[in-house]
Amino acid sequence: MDYVALGVDFHAIRNKNEDRVIDLLPQVLPEFPDFAPTRTDVEDIYALTLNRLPARYVQSVTLVIAEPVSDPLIRQTLRESIRIVRVRPNM
Fold this sequence. Notes:
Layout: E1 4-5, E2 8-9, E3 14-15, H1 17-28, H2 39-52, E4 57-58, H3 71-87
Antiparallel strand pairs: 1-2, 3-4
């Protein structure tokens, strides 16, 4: 997909939670020492977590006054996603 419509390039508009989930995943995963996720498991955890959080789309010039999605909420959602993927890998 080229992410262009009506002459406008939408590549720079992203869900702000993507980077935050990527940053927090390595901190939360060690809480599950008996789980050795595959690459697909990690991708599933990432996607499931993003799907369970409210989207926070921003563009490069967006001014964020307050962040409604907290790091503790992301960590908790990651834990829930890990538990789900552990029980049902490759959903």
